[in-house]
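job 3f2a | input accepted
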Amino acid sequence: MPSKKKPPVRKRRRRAIIAFELVRLERASAEPLHQQLYRQIRDELTSGSFTPSSARLPSSRSLASSLGIARSTVKLALAKLHAEGYLQAKKGSGTFIAETLPETFLNAGKLQLRSGHDLPARLSARVKDIPDPRAGKQFDHGIAGPPGVSFVPALCAIDEFPMEIWERLRAQVLLRKGAHLLQYASSHGDADLRKAIAAYLCDFRGARCHPDQIVITAGTQQALMICALALVNRGEIVWLEDPGFHQARRAFGFAGGTIVPRPVDQEGIVIARPSSQRTPRIIFVTPSHQFPLGMTMSLTRRTALIDFARQHNVFLFEDDHSSEFRFNGPPLPCLQGMDNSGRVIYAGTLSKILFPSLRLGYLVVPEQLVDPMIKIRAVMDQHSSAIDQAILARFISEGFFLSHVKRMRKLYATRRECFIEHFQSVLGDYFRLQIPEAGLHFVAWLRRKGEQEEILRLAAEIGIRPLPISFFSIKAQLPPGLTFGFAAWTQAQIREGLNRLALSLKKRPQVVRDLRLSRGSGL
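job 3f2a | predicted structure (523 res):
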């Protein structure tokens, strides 16, 4: 005979049990224990921390055991809560918070909560003085926004990252050092990673450094904050390129520095200053690829800048972003390699080369600054992920990093040429494209003034989000222009995005003519 099928076993939906860990009973109090327990459970239920009917109370036996009181005392308290409508019993399931709690207690709780939140928060001047209102919000929905071609500057092609290699190295690292990597790590940074970075910088960036001079950071932004807090007292002068990297303005301003914008010309930052102007404490520069305009600092200007720093006891913060992605000739030696007086602090990021959420970068600092920088890093967040540092050390030392850089340089060069050719073809009537020797974005200057806001609005309607060059300016008076990224999208996507923008701009005059005709006809 065929066996009868057993009826399916119904899985009971597990419900969270309220622990009431904050209950404290005072045995010496004149108030009876059952009344204390009733009052404290009632206060927790009306605090709004629990959803009615979704949380179950522990049994009277377990609650009595955890509190060290008689079960009859617990039953008295729960009986009173039942009678007043706070609890409801469900046969075979237990005791739960009632679907609707007594309104008097709920309203009292809400009024008390509301009045507390109406008090103005006492914020520090640092928070109020953060110059950019976008700070803390720009990545809430992803930097590139909705799926598609946005041309947001400075994005890398994360879909080309060799994830299989990274995961294989992760497995090997965890197998060898697993337990060790789960501990707290050095604020200085993983020793193997510092050794690998030092070798790479000396061989391929012309730096002069040893592993002990390297401090691992959570990207360039933290590197800026470490330097600002270690070197700049409130009110001291900080020179920034203008236009320049907006994150540097945030960091040094947050630390209390007085920001002095310095103009840039075709050779880089302008050093000459009036004799009455105060000497800066630190100068932020992007010599390999000025951000955002894209020029490369000349050898003459580099030498003059180092001489100025040595003569006036000034530190130079060299942000070497995008230096690996130079398309006309080999990467230029870094400023740090020219310095023989301990004036240059060199910062590099690995997040933009590999993938942004890695949040790993580094500082190469003069020997006398190593210990102060490590102390600042320890106060900030102690250290970066020990596991990611160990994987990255292997990724660099085994040659995968250099191979990835070479492959991405070739890929970006192809996408760059595609962008230039197609942009000139379909948008050349609207923009004059400035073509830098390096970097992952272009500056497109508008041919006709007064159109920037309308073009930005039309672009946003189709999901394209170039940044205006004015976003990066402090005082610099620049003609209207937009910055377009190109590295994160395929050639087909680049053409499609530029075509959509061109079509949107071409439709605009017809709409204006139609509007004028409709007004003239009295419609």
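job 3f2a | Residues 16-113 form a domain with the Arc Repressor Mutant, subunit A fold (CATH 1.10.10.10).
job 3f2a | closed
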